[in-house]
Design goal:
four-stranded mixed beta sheet, 10 helices, binds uridine-diphosphate-2(N-acetylglucosaminyl) butyric acid
Length: 351
């Protein structure tokens, strides 16, 4: 008879073949991989690393909220499921929180605000895991991850070497990092460390937060939890819940154009939504451009652009990566034709 221990080991298989990924990507695209490794405990790391070093094609998967998965993935998929949140350092000015990569990002935010720790409350309800947050430098309502990240621990899967990287070594830019640039199979982020200020100051400049009069009225009584609640309400009012309407958040980046090109557009479209950048360039609201092209609330096959936020693509049921690509290409072509602006897809295509 098998011992209890062996039974437990058999139930929890860190390595699996032919694994269905349809429920492991927030767009719920039909997809499967020929080989999957689960990283759940510290002890799994050696198994995962050994497999990763043997496999030239890999995908590190967190919550699957920023990928477009093709039906047959011919890569080793490493699914990160590690847990743990702890304060690792506290000074007069900051507390450093270390978070295991597999933690759900929103739960980390909630844990912090419930403890009265401010700094990441504007990033509430962003789908995905803590380890995926640096990959696309998540951002919302005036805060980007790079402004609160202290450092992280990552393994280079091409060599097996572990690095402790400061935030300046992560190559962050708008929705981008060196981890995303390297492809989603090159680095395995195992932990992130957040630097949260002891003397917290709310960030309330984003138009949607300014409109929350209740929040503005709280003045010096305002807590990180109040801002967290407001952000949750705003997101719930305009963004679809991936568990009810599968989506990957913003499907395109907000495009950045030169000032001359912007002036030309402004003459033809005086109400164009734009944000000036410090380098003289201008960021345009992609949702506005897409809406002007008539795509808000419109479908193509089983996918469509959300009725309240034209930047978010929704899978209405049974979509594949081909359906997503067909809609993305139609939108890109229309925005190019009408505005001469090139849209860049935010989620990464995985074949
Ligand atoms: N707009 C429209 N029509 C639309 C959508 C937007 O006209 O259908 C215009 C509105 O004027 C609105 C403005 O665009 O005021 C900006 O829209 P919103 O505040 O919803 O923000 P966004 O620029 O569309 C970005 C991020 C979101 C983030 C919000 C809030 C990107 C690509 N997206 O969206 O991030 O939550 O700001 O900070 O930068 C994500 O990356 O997945 C994501 C959801």
């Amino acid at each position: 008879m098998l011992s209890k221990h062996i039974h437990a080991a058999l139930n929890y298989a860190p390595i699996m073949s032919e694994y269905d990924l349809t429920h492991h990507n927030t767009l719920a695209l039909q997809s499967a991989t020929s080989s999957l490794c689960r990283l759940k405990t510290k002890a799994d790391l050696n198994v995962v690393l050994k497999r990763a070093l043997e496999s030239p094609f890999r995908l590190v998967l967190g919550g699957g909220s920023n990928v477009v998965l093709w039906p047959e993935i011919k890569r080793l998929v490493i699914k990160v499921e590690t847990r743990g949140i702890a304060i690792v350092e506290e000074t007069n000015t900051h507390r450093i929180i270390e978070v295991a990569a597999g933690e759900t990002w929103h739960e980390v935010v909630e844990h912090c605000v419930r403890n009265g720790w401010g700094g990441i409350e504007n990033l509430a309800l962003i789908p995905g895991t803590a380890g995926a947050a640096p990959v696309q430098n998540i951002g919302a309502y005036g805060v980007e991850l790079e402004s609160v990240l202290h450092s992280l621990v990552a393994v280079d899967l091409t060599t097996g070497q572990t690095y402790d990287l400061s935030k300046d070594e992560c190559g962050f830019s708008y929705r981008d990092s060196m981890f995303k640039q390297a492809g989603l199979g090159s680095w395995l982020i195992t932990h992130i460390r957040l630097s949260l200020p002891i003397n917290w100051q709310p960030v309330l400049e984003y138009p949607d937060l300014k409109l929350d009069k209740g929040l503005q009225k709280l003045g010096s009584k305002l807590t990180p939890y109040d801002v967290f609640e407001s952000v949750c309400n705003i997101r719930r009012s305009k963004l679809p819940d991936p568990s009810l309407q599968p989506n990957a958040g913003s499907f395109f980046k907000n495009p950045v154009i030169g000032y001359e090109a912007y002036e030309k557009l402004l003459r033809d479209y005086p109400d164009i939504v734009s944000y000036p950048l410090s380098d003289g360039k201008v960021k345009l609201a992609a949702g506005w451009l897409i809406q002007q092209c008539g795509w808000r609330g419109k479908r193509l096959g089983p996918v469509g652009m959300h009725t309240r936020q034209a930047l978010v693509m929704v899978n209405y049921g049974g979509a594949s990566a081909d359906d997503v690509t067909a809609l993305a290409n139609s939108i890109k072509a229309d925005v190019m034709q009408n505005f001469g602006v090139s849209l860049e897809q935010e989620p990464v295509n995985i074949y």
